[in-house]
């Protein structure tokens, strides 16, 4: 039988090869049993029990091993993880079956330092009774965990403490204590009839709560629309600042936002004309439309309209007939009820007209109030604009002073540059000579290259002319494209319905004649049906015209009766509420007119002040420009005099030469 160290190592190696996502536990156990064929049955069963138990109780073992790596075993490798899991499984589930002696051999056969650290951590009474029990109780039932696992571990803890002490001395390199004398084995009778105690059933795992769906990453990310809006706002702000800067620097070039006197006069005339068209005291804005006009031309109806109107009049005739029959049989006519109903409707209509007039006047009053509010807002804006103009004028004055200072500095810089140009004359002359020499070399090379390109082009052209002559010679050969066909012969494909072209033409001609005769017969039949239908429609039209005439007479009679019964209507002018609203509207209009006149006077005064300020600013600008141009002309004269004196002194030593402003370029196409 192999030692326990090799069996534990085999179990650890098999656990290292296990991948939960690739296969099931049963498949892994079958694969492990094939790998352990050379072992005995007891050894094979021990290894399989260890690896299957480690896989089944992986959650419990992970709680202990993960915490051990986090707290105490930070210096150990992750490759020893399965080794610690095997020891934890043996101590928790198989310590009763193995016994303390066998468990001590297994532990001592492994690394002493690692086992001392792990067993000291695992068999700590404080750890077992606190967080280990709490974590295991979240996976399985708390009473079962305390009774089956925590209580046995606490019972074995004092005896395991001796093993931990021996491992500590072994890890420190000290002398191991002398083993106690073994007791003499006392033989006992076999209890053959004693049954093996029933193994405890595997506890059912507590159903875990379904893992909640993680919050999407987009929840904690700002939407892209906000960035786009911020960019648009930034861009609009930049444009607004640019427009404000342009308006401040070019104040008097902006368009006058105020309307002219002529425009205001036209707008007031249009408003007065619209107000004059309003009629508050009239009975109706327009007369009631007539129900029947005898002098209007007749409307041309299509077939659908004729049928629809004929059916309508037929129903009306039937209803009138039924009503007459009912009257003859002794029935009554609801004429008094209809008269009362018309009076009630007329009264409701009058109230509705008064309500509409009142609402319209209230709308006009709200419009006038809105106009007055706009006038007040414009006045406040004008005050703010006046303050802004004063600030802008101050900024313009500072800007003008700064420009004068910059022009003075630029003038001094120009004088320094002129002094530097005097020293650069000789360098320019040398540079001109060097460039002229380079230009001559480049022109010579370009002539040589052009000559070679011309020779290649001539050879290519000769080759193309030769190809063109060959193609034209081949195209000049005549080609026979005619094929002689006999119309009376068949194609010779041996088909049942095969016929010649002449026979096909004759059959098609006969077929066309039959189709034309059939079309003529169909046309005559349709014409007869159309005539019959037109006669029937004409009869319907006559009936409709009679019904219309009768309805027109009836409508005239009812209109006359209505006029005789109509009571005088009290107009909206008698309504005190409408009069009060109308007076309020007139007050609002007068107040708005006063604001408009005050605004016109203020705009006129502001225009005169702006014209005077513009005139003064133009004069100041003209004076500054003239002064600036005079200074530029004087500086230019000094520069020309200095250059003339310098060129005169240079020509005395070098003689006349070509100015170095340009050098000859090579001529294209030469050579």
UniProtKB/TrEMBL annotation:
PANTHER family: CILIA- AND FLAGELLA-ASSOCIATED PROTEIN 99. Signal peptide: none annotated. InterPro entries: CFAP99 (IPR039341). Residues 501-532 form a coiled coil. It comes from the Eukaryota. Residues 192-214, 646-671 are annotated as: Disordered. This is Cilia and flagella associated protein 99. Keywords: Coiled coil. It comes from Paramormyrops kingsleyae. The keyword Glycoprotein does not apply.
